[in-house]
């Protein structure tokens, strides 16, 4: 049989398998293979449109048909309808047969969510980018990062076979159902495209220009300074609360005010319908709604009326605009007499501050004036400045109540007092003398707010001389006002080096690290299922792995050598006590924020000559020394006792270094290349690192391309025949705070350089200033990852993280960065 006959036979067998719909899938053929519809019965696309798109993808191979159909559906206007694509696709995997190698439901759900999010990005594109000829450009760009299911050599022949109609007779016969693994792979390219194009603007920019972002414009020239006298700005309520919170004297007042701001709501003015001058007609216009059409227009016959409506000649009534709501100035009257001394005074002042802030930040801001009510006199208060608030706290009057001052205020300022708030003690409402004077002053009040030492607050509203209760709230004043605020945390700061590779100057590191120089044991590793794994390497680096699907974070570049004792709070913190000669330190690692806190206790135990016995129990470190037991509480971050007579019984560690899942968490099957003697470029233009060629490998299972360091080929060209071969600098030198980490340098004749990083990295610096610095992770046996100084990453999610901010496909990264670096070498 000739090669041509063999290819024809293969194509005729492959065409039905590629184009037939699987059983119980989200799409199917109908109308004798002329229409593709959703399982719900709605039309997805027509055969002619699908054929045109597939013809446009022939030059790069055909992706899975399901991915093409989903992208076609997202380009249509019916994508977001209630019975559209997202609803059908979300339900399709629930009845799929399960296989041994299927991804978990959580992994499949995340893949589906990312794919649907990207399809929503496509749906939001302007119509001129997802229809017509630009649609083909969209498909080529989306599927360019995916290894094709049907190669370029057979794609055209496969479409010719389908166009001939010979396979149409089997299209209405469903093939066997797909598994969840197949669905996961068919969604892979769409899900990964969300990393490349996280927003509609990013995708539209790429389709129009081919760029990830537009070049930055030149900075505008600074305007000439204008020297003029201006009035000082009045601090805002937020600024004032910040100032109060920073001062120990007023920190409790600030906390209580913040709670009251959220609780106090100022009732709006209520008006009767007859009070509003609304309902009249102010004008006649040729624009409006049909319900305002002049009745005289209906006298025309239908054709004339329609013509007048179309030509904007018909007349409509224009209603009178409603008036803007009245904004009245507000007054706050703060009782400072005898019953408001102590806690009620602070409670009442906090309520006044909250009332003033809500008044100024409402939709209709109102000016607020504050006054202190004494027994006989009224004194203005300044609630806009820190000094004014402190002065208000000092306002005290020994009178039994403020009834006389309240009456005098109502008589002297009736306009201002027409919308004012009185803040006083709740018990005064039951005192006959004050209650009588309060009733006389009621016409001048609109609100009454009472406070109580128990923490109860009540807001009353005056309407037509009658008082009604609007709201009630209760606060824990003891906790809010007098609880000591936690001491400010003093976190360790690790400023990035000013010299060295760009990767080391990023905080946090833009890639996750591979594990190097670690021999797992109970002496250097801590594990908790709810937290993860924390280990200290031979070079005293502190690394953390939250799970087995992601690499390590470097929490501390260098920790002292000594005996390590681990502890944790069970959720978010890991503690490490380091004990050695003249050394006793405790580190707290905050896993969520990757922050580190340290306390030095060596002066508390009289400079020990050797490591001290240590036990971690109930959140505390117990350190045995000459004069007893030092107890340090990690939860409050303070010493509880210095000379305790009880030292807890030491329990053996529950950690076992040979536990299988511990090791899988810190290494997913790779080896790190950390000793290099040669680096160069072969005749095919590929980078060769210690005999390992950096290649692009197609992953047929995931339909993606990966970046790998291939295994050494013993029959390959000898190292001395490699083009641009450079020799390693035998003298290592430190570049980081941890001086045990020694870098080694390569140099090319053109000025390009490479730095071997002992943490398992290689940094490439090109002599061409337009090529950003590139960092490669030197792992063998697994897909690797890379980063550039402009923030772009590519490669394995184990090192890039699940959703990097700026991610390129491996072919794009190779073309835009690696090949430009290699081309500079000549």
Automatic annotation (TrEMBL):
InterPro entries: bpX0 (IPR045554), bpX1 (IPR045553)
Pfam families linked: bpX0 (PF19915), bpX1 (PF19917)
Protein name as it appears in the record: Uncharacterized protein
Source superkingdom: Bacteria
Residue ranges of domain MoxR-vWA-beta-propeller ternary system in the record: 41-204, 744-825
């Amino acid at each position: 049989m000739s090669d041509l006959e063999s290819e024809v036979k293969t194509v005729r067998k492959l065409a039905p398998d590629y184009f037939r719909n699987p059983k119980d899938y989200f799409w199917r053929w109908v109308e004798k293979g002329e229409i593709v519809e959703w399982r719900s019965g709605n039309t997805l696309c027509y055969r002619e449109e699908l054929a045109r798109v597939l013809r446009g993808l022939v030059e790069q191979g055909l992706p899975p048909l399901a991915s093409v159909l989903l992208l076609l559906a997202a380009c249509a206007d019916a994508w977001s309808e209630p019975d559209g694509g997202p609803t059908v696709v979300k339900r399709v995997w629930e009845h799929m047969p399960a296989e041994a190698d299927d991804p978990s439901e959580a992994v499949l759900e995340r893949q589906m969510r990312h794919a649907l999010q990207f399809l929503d990005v496509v749906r939001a594109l302007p119509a001129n980018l997802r229809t017509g000829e630009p649609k083909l450009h969209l498909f080529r760009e989306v599927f360019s990062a995916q290894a094709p299911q049907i190669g370029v050599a057979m794609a055209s022949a496969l479409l010719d076979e389908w166009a001939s109609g010979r396979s149409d007779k089997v299209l209405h016969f469903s093939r066997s159902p797909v598994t969840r693994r197949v669905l996961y792979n068919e969604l892979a390219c769409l899900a990964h495209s969300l990393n490349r194009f996280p927003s509609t603007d990013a995708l539209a920019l790429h389709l129009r220009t081919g760029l990830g972002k537009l070049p930055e414009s030149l900075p505008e020239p600074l305007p000439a300074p204008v020297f003029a006298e201006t009035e000082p700005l009045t601090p805002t309520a937020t600024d004032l609360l910040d100032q109060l919170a920073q001062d120990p004297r007023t920190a409790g007042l600030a906390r209580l005010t913040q709670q009251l701001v959220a609780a106090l709501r100022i009732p709006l003015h209520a008006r009767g319908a007859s009070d509003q001058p609304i309902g009249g007609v102010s004008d006649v216009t040729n624009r409006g709604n049909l319900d305002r059409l002049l009745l005289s227009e209906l006298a025309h016959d239908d054709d004339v009326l329609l013509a007048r409506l179309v030509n904007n000649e018909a007349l409509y009534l224009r209603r009178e605009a409603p008036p803007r709501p009245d904004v009245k100035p507000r007054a706050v009257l703060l009782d400072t007499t005898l019953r408001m001394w102590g806690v009620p005074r602070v409670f009442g002042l906090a309520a006044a501050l909250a009332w003033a802030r809500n008044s100024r930040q409402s939709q209709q801001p109102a000016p607020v004036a504050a006054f202190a009510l004494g027994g006989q006199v009224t004194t203005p208060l300044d609630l806009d400045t820190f000094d004014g608030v402190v002065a208000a706290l000092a306002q005290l009057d020994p009178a039994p109540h403020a009834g006389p001052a309240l009456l005098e205020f109502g008589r002297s300022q009736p306009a201002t007092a027409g919308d004012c708030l009185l803040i006083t003690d709740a018990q005064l409402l039951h005192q006959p003398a004050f209650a009588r004077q309060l009733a006389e002053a009621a016409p001048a009040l609109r609100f009454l707010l009472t406070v109580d030492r128990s923490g109860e607050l009540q807001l009353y509203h005056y309407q037509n001389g009658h008082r009604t209760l609007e709201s009630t709230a209760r606060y824990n004043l003891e906790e809010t006002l007098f609880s000591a605020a936690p001491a400010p945390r003093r976190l360790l700061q690790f400023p990035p080096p000013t010299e060295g590779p760009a990767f080391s100057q990023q905080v946090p590191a833009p890639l996750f690290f591979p594990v190097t120089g670690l021999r797992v044991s109970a002496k250097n590793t801590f594990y908790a299922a709810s937290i993860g794994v924390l280990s200290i390497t031979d070079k005293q680096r502190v690394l953390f792995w939250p799970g087995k699907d992601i690499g390590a974070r470097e929490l501390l570049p260098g920790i002292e050598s000594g005996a390590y004792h681990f502890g944790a709070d069970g959720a978010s913190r890991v503690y490490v006590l380091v004990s050695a000669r003249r050394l006793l330190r405790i580190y707290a690692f905050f896993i969520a924020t990757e922050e580190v806190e340290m306390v030095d206790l060596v002066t508390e135990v009289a400079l020990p000559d050797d490591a001290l016995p240590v036990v971690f129990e109930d959140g505390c470190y117990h350190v045995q020394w000459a004069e007893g037991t030092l107890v340090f509480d990690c939860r409050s971050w303070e010493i509880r006792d210095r000379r305790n007579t009880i030292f807890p019984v030491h329990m053996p560690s529950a950690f076992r270094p040979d536990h299988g899942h511990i090791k899988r968490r810190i290494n997913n099957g790779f080896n790190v290349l950390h000793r290099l003697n040669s680096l160069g470029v072969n005749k095919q233009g590929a980078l060769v690192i210690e005999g390992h060629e950096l290649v692009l490998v197609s992953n047929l299972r995931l339909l993606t391309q990966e970046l790998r360091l291939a295994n050494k080929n013993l029959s390959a060209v000898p190292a001395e025949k490699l083009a641009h071969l450079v020799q390693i600098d035998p003298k290592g030198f430190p570049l980081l705070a941890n001086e045990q980490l020694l870098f080694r340098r390569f140099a090319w004749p053109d000025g390009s350089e490479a730095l071997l990083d002992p943490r398992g990295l290689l940094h490439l610096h090109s002599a061409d200033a337009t090529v950003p610095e590139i960092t490669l992770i030197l792992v063998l046996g697994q897909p690797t990852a890379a980063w550039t100084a402009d923030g772009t990453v590519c490669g394995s999610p184990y090192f890039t993280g699940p959703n990097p901010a700026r991610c390129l496909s491996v072919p794009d990264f190779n073309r835009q960065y690696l090949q430009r670096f290699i081309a500079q070498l000549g």
